Amino acid sequence: MLGIDDPYVLMAYLGAISMAVIGIIYGLVRRNAARDEVTPEDRLWALDEKKVDDDF
Amino acid sequence: MTGHSSVGWVDIVVILAYLFATGYLGWLGYRGTRSAADFLVGGRSAHPIIMAVSYGATFISTAAIVGFGGVAGVFGMSLLWLTVLNIGFGILIAFIFLGEPTRRLGHHLGAHTFPELLGQRYQSRGIQIFAGALIFLFMPLYSAAVMTGGSIFAATQFGIDFEVALLIFALITAAYVIPGGIKAVMYTDTLQGFIMVFAMIVLLIFTYMSLGGITEAHRALTDMADLVPAPLAQMGHRGWTAMPAFGWGAPTYDLWWTVITALVLGVGIGVLAQPQLVVRFMTVRSRRELDRAVPIGAVFILLMVGTPFVVGSLSNAWFAQNGPLLQGKVVEVIDADKDRALVELMQKNESGTWTAILNPKTQAPARAPMIIGERSSAQDGDGATFELVAGRSIAATYTKGDADKIIPAFIMAAMPRWFGIIFFLALLAAAMSTMSSQFHTIGTAAGRDLYERISDKGHSREPSILVMRLAILVGLIIAVTISYTVRQEYVIARFTAIFFGLCAASFLPAYIGGLVSKRVTRAGALASMTVGMSVSLFWLLLIKAREASAIGLVQWVTDGKTSLLADYPNWPSVDPIIIALPAAVLTLILVSAVTRPPDAAHLRRCFPD
User: Fold this and answer.
1) CB of B218 less than 8 A from some CB of A
2) Mean pLDDT of the B378-403 span
3) What is the domain range of residue B135?
4) CA-CA to B349 of 20 to 30 Å: which in B123, B370, B421, B582?
5) What is the CATH number of the domain that holds B247?
6) Minimum-distance CB partner of A3 among B45, B112, B218
7) Is residue B207 part of a domain?
């Protein structure tokens, strides 16, 4: 199949593509599934991170 | 090699235009929202494409494209298992299972670096210092791999010496990294990511088209299995579209153990514990943003690592069909029907007679498998008449056996001139986006994790900022020195594999254990990290023949052997990760089981939900 006789290499070739397809399907299915919330703790963390970056 | 290697004014203009565009985006970034943290501060969300491509651009470097692509040119498509693992572990498992727990733990504990995350999770200054020291000491090895990859391509493409290319590459990197590029400017990373995507798509399509299509290209490569050079065949190489021979206890299985344990598992699993990638999860706004980045990230990695591995392998078919003609004398017939033979390569000297080309390593006449196209009569240096054959060979013949030069040589010989410039920009982009993260990690490891922790400076920023800058400069000098001095077989892929494997064995058990288990203890984590690192280094110094013999300690200990286990086939080819990672996991479990559980109040802080 596809000019590759070794089933394990063919599996890797198709497996890499399949992994990407799984990623696409996952992203589409979960697109809005999780909550999108920024907590005060998240914001505090980001402010500290930004301060370190700015100093740098 | 034939080609068109020189630097033209168009090349210089295009490269400068790219550097200005990068600089302009960076400058724009200074004036507004630039990093993931800025988006978070502003309560807004970075577009999932920007987040995923920015992450991917950090993940993928010239090491993957030039180094591992070249290794695929020698070992073949079995390396595609690394693509499977890179997407499976590096995107799916990392984003779906580790991203959110890392983000939440980092924010609960106020951690900003990977060592700080581990140190805070286990309430251990020692763990933070240990992790910071390991990163500071060994990250330059990975940076050197990235630099070597870019420099080899520039040297081949523009026909300049490697040393000159390395110097230019180092100066461009320094100019980008030291003043401001280290700030994770997401738009810059994204521009670099898009250039990489464009280059890889063009490269993949062109390669398949030039070989007659997908199936035809693979079939041509499959039919070349009898051209595998004898030294590789003796290690278990069975063709570029076949897995190496699998088994244990004979040298004919060495290649399987090298490809699968060192290159596929070492790098494939190691990506989960890459400090510069783990911290990216902490800058993400929410779980939803992580979910949305998965598709883009998966496709990006497929293109970035799948393409070089396929193209590297197929370069053998392209050179066998279209490469420059080589001449020589038949030494051994491989297949009379297909007119394939092992040929002693020859060149015509000034007096019009033919002399053998010497192998630079062995000083013996160079031999190569050849598909013969022409036969004629010629005279050798002694005046004797012989049958001169002309034909084409596999990719490694054209690069004198240097795997790291296969992708550059293929681009120069097979692709249009304009694409060489685009590809150089893609490599420059891949190197800059990765190196900015690498040196940022080196800087924070030295300043925040080592200097502040050792001197217990807490949050007094000024001195540690100076330490960070100095550390970046030192790291850059070390990386350039390594690139300059170490030029061995597929060194780019090996340096990358060493660093990834070391990170996996040292950090992965403590990192994942700290995310998912409340029972893992400080002693367990520290013991696991110590065992993982010690076993890895022991294996690299004394067991794994290729690395151990290059370092030299093992010859001194054993009176000239290349491994302590040199008399036991396959052991010297096994990567440290196979021994060190299980040992580290076992240590984590056993030591945690017999030591006092962590403080309940601290665990509530780590896992408030």
Assistant:
1) yes
2) 91
3) 33-320+410-486
4) B370
5) 1.20.1730.10
6) B218
7) yes
Residue A8, min C-alpha distance to chain B (Å): 7
Asked whether the beta carbons of residue B461 and residue A37 sit closer than 8 angstroms, the reply is: no
**For residue B270, is pLDDT > 80?**
yes
pLDDT tens digit string along B229-245? Answer: 999 999 999 999 999 99
Tell me, yes or no, whether B261 lies in a domain. yes
- B550 in a domain, yes or no? no
State yes or no: pLDDT of B130 exceeds 90. Answer: yes
Residue of B nearest to A46 (CA): B37
> Could you tell me the pLDDT band of residue A50, with boundaries at 50, 70 and 90?
confident
Which of B69-73, B251-255, B482-486 has the weakest average pLDDT?
Answer: B482-486
CA of B239 vs chain A CAs: smallest distance (Å): 10
Q: What is the pLDDT of residue B1?
A: 45
Helix-strand-coil split of chain A, %, nearest 5: 70, 0, 30
Question: What total of structural domains would you count in chain B?
Answer: 1
- The listed range with the strongest mean pLDDT (B384-393, B423-432, B478-487) is B384-393
Disruptive mutation site among B68, B241, B472, B606 for chain A (greatest number of A CBs within 10 Å): B241
Task: For residue B163, give Cα distances in angstroms to A18, B5, B119, B148, B484.
Answer: 41, 16, 40, 10, 7
Q: Does A36 touch chain B (CB under 8 A)?
A: yes
Select the residue from B45, B75, B81 to test the A interface by mutation, using most A Cβ atoms within 10 A. B81
**pLDDT-based confidence at residue B46 (cuts at 50, 70, 90):** low
Which residues in chain A touch residue B296, judged by CB atoms under 8 angstroms apart?
27
CA–CA–CA angle B237, B570, B581 (5° rounding): 110
Residues of B in Cβ contact (< 8 Å) with A17: 302, 306
Report whether B33 contacts B285 (CB < 8 A).
Answer: no
Which pLDDT belongs to residue A30? 93
Q: What would the mean pLDDT of B566-580 be, rounded to a whole number?
A: 94
From the CA of B118, how many Å to the nearest CA of chain A? 17
Q: What count of residues does chain A have?
A: 56
User: DSSP string spanning B517-581?
Assistant: -SS--HHHHHHHHHHHHHHHHHIIIIISHHHHHHH-HHHHHHTS-S-TTTTSTTGGGS-HHHHHH
CA distance B99 to chain A (A): 13
**What's the confidence (pLDDT) of residue A38?**
81
Q: Tokens for B577, please give them.
A: 């990760």
Q: For residue range B502-517, what is the model confidence (pLDDT) as tens digits? A: 999 999 999 999 999 9
CB contact under 8 A, A2 and B218: yes
In a domain, B17, yes or no: no
